[in-house]
Amino acid sequence: MDLHQIVFLLILAGSLYLFISERLRVDVTAMLTLLALVVTGVLDSKSALSGFASEPAIIVAAVFVISGGLAATGITEKIGQWVERAAGASESRAIAVTMPVVAALSSFTHHVMVTAMMLPILTRLARAKGLSVSRLLMPMSFAASLGTTLTLVSAPAFLLADNLIERSGTEGLGIFSITPIGLTLVVVGVVYMLLARWLLPKRAGDAGDDGYLRLDRYRTELLVVEGSRWSTRPLAELQKALGDKFRLIGWLRDGKERDDLTASSPLISGDVLLVEASADALASLHDDPGLDLNALARFGNRITGEGQRQLVQAVVAPGSEFIGRSIRELNFARRFHTVIAGLWRRDGDVDSRLADARLREGDLLVLWGRPSRFTELAAHHGFLMLVPFAGEAKRRVRAPLALAVLAATVFAAATELLPAALAFLLGAVAMVATRCVDIEQAYREIDVRIFVMIAGVIPLGIAMERTGTAELMADGLLHVVAGWPALAVLLVMFSVAALLTQILSDAATTVLLGPIAVSLAQSLGLPVTPFVVCTALGAVVAFLTPIGHHGNLLILGPGQYRFHDFLRIGLPLTVLIALVSAWMAQWLWLDGPLLPF
């Protein structure tokens, strides 16, 4: 063992200590590790910084943007609504529903993207049902990784394993060759999480979540505009498109309220729907070319002032001159050059027509106007305060575009039409270019802490290879296990890969250990396929630390997990997965028994 190997092992030990003890944030630890490798001469600066341009770092940044596009177009919300309905109010039922769904989504998509997409869904579900978010996010993240074992194209490690098997002179794997193992592992993972729920930490989640500031039940009026895409389509279709947090209060046609119209009745241009909507729905309605907020359609041309038009919220102050007067009487459009687009009231009834509503102390008005006019309103004694509107507009009309971008991205990456990093990067750019998500929101979606963490950990793997430490470990393993029974060797290959993948990527681990697996199989006179597959499985589904899988890094903060949480919960699961993987591989390719008895 030379000096560079000794120095690297010391740096590795120090990094693992900081990661496990959490004396510093994980991204800070990653940067200190990177600097230590450069200062000690283990790596040159170019190699140390290569993590920032690496495929995993680029993919992680891109999937944040793609997931942001899915959320901005309402797709995530739709999936969330289905999951919420199916999950009910039970923690065990939520886990039983979420894990198979996430695993299925991960079988043909990148598991990090699925994790990023499901994270806000489960956070909202936990808040709505009074559940602990930390008991939902870890099962979901583990299911995303388990789902990558369902098809050959789900993880780079399996594609590399297939290539290695073919180069050894053996017939390669088909796209569903590993599916029997994957299905078994998903079932085992779900059952384990249901039985071992008591091991999961019970924490509230990220305290920085501002969801408690968001209000629902805004009263507003919705106009079906001339030439609307909703014209002649039944109301039920509109209700389905706008989601669960949209309730019809009344229906005006030709200026008269109709009580004979139902969900199956067709909408007609000029119809006015009196509704209660969530903040997100209210913010989204003005962006739908077939719909508009009635007040904006009638008085929007009176809005003057400087700056881009926006929604704000204003609270009616105690003793305000507005109290007891109707919105029609106040004529905000003429007096303040703003439009009242919605009204929220904590208690009490609100007139069906927004214009007839008489204001009360504490009423919250949703105003549409320009910043220069809001400056004047903020100083008016009639309002207690002006605050930003909490709703986030959903670009629902672009949902098909977002799905098309996602499908094209997955197709390009899965078929290797483009390198995975480039495919996901193009997908992220396409989300912005097609206006599924605006550029400002796209940048906000990227969690820089996670990006830095991944970029900083990757040089550890490079240093392991450059110093010859990886080769030294591989040679030692070859001498130890030569001549062992096949099942024992399969377990050893899985276990070594499970340990190395905590530092290296799954692809690097497979590349490093794959040739050893081939050599061991040939020395035993057995097919190479089960040994290489077990090595790849160990690289993909070992849940020992949060740094072993990028998806686990995404949930680290929102779930308020600690480093040892993953070891306590993931170690028993990894041992169980190792046994199942080795046994199933022996059954599939070595004619072993399917049942252990």
Automatic annotation (TrEMBL):
Subcellular location, record wording: Membrane
Pfam families the record matches: CitMHS (PF03600), TrkA_C (PF02080)
Membrane topology: Multi-pass membrane protein
Transmembrane segments: 28-45, 57-75, 95-119, 140-161, 173-195, 401-434, 446-464, 476-504, 524-545, 566-589
GO biological-process terms attached to the record: potassium ion transport
Primary subcellular site in the record, as a coarse category: membrane
Alphabetical keyword list: Membrane, Repeat, Transmembrane, Transmembrane helix, Transport
Domain RCK C-terminal: residue ranges: 298-383
CDD domains registered for this protein in UniProt: SLC13_permease
Keyword Transmembrane included in the entry's annotation: yes
InterPro entries in UniProt: Cit_transptr-like_dom, DASS-Related_Transporters, RCK_C, RCK_C_sf
Key word Transport present: yes
Name of this protein: Di/tricarboxylate transporter
Species this chain originates from: Aerolutibacter ruishenii
